[in-house]
Amino acid sequence: MSAASTLVHQRVPASALRAFRATRSGWFRLGEQARFFGQTLASLVDVVLYYRGELLRQVAAMSLGTGSLAVIGGTVAVTTFLTMSTGGALASEGYNQLSNIGVEALTGFASAFANTRLVTPSTGAFAFAATIGAGATAQLGAMRINEEIDALEVMGVRPIAYLASTRVAAGIIVAVPLYCIALILGYTAGRLVTIYFYGQSGGVFTHYFNTFFIPADAIRSFVVSLAVVTAIMLIHTYYGFTARGGPAGVGEAVGRATRASLIVAVFVILFVTLALYGQTGNFNFAG
Fold it and tell me: What are the structural domain ranges in the chain?
């Protein structure tokens, strides 16, 4: 160690050095993640050109193929439970709050507006991250610790394109019908709670729901959902691809990936929603 380096270590407190090293390490990890995300997205072209078979296999594994009861069955069950719970809770809260000012008939409006723009995209993202995303991290992590990814590199297979990009593309494809189910169940739960629990007329709910339901908003909510799913799959594939430390390391990677994906999903929903709808919140209740 040089004299200058020794002098710096003597003058700088140990806590400051640890903080600096932690910050530098964090920036390095962030840069590594950004590089991995860029390579994964760029490799989607290779998936279409060279790895179509693996893409179809991943879609089948996530939808109707081997292990469907453990993967997509669990996803459908979780999505059904969560979306119906949140849709029913929205209807319950909306009816009670609106009834305080005498406009409980607008519960249909609350379902058409909030479910489409915010509640269902958020609920679907959480269900997707906890099922398909976590499963992708566990699969890639197991392959990493068993040196299967290294074996693919030795055989000349592009591991990021073959393993990560195919799962990102498959997740996006599978997310479309899943989100359709989530959206329908959210509307259905709101209608059932409002009509059968609070006794509102079905015609009143349907009238205000149809009045304020904007089909373009449903299309925009699909854009929000696909953006969230892309971010979730990128994060989960990264943590699985870089897992270390044996089975315990894989479990830790799944936990870290789920935590990170849920946090990122909230911010993606926020910024994409602002980009699509803007910052105005004016509504015309006339008629």
Answer: 30-275
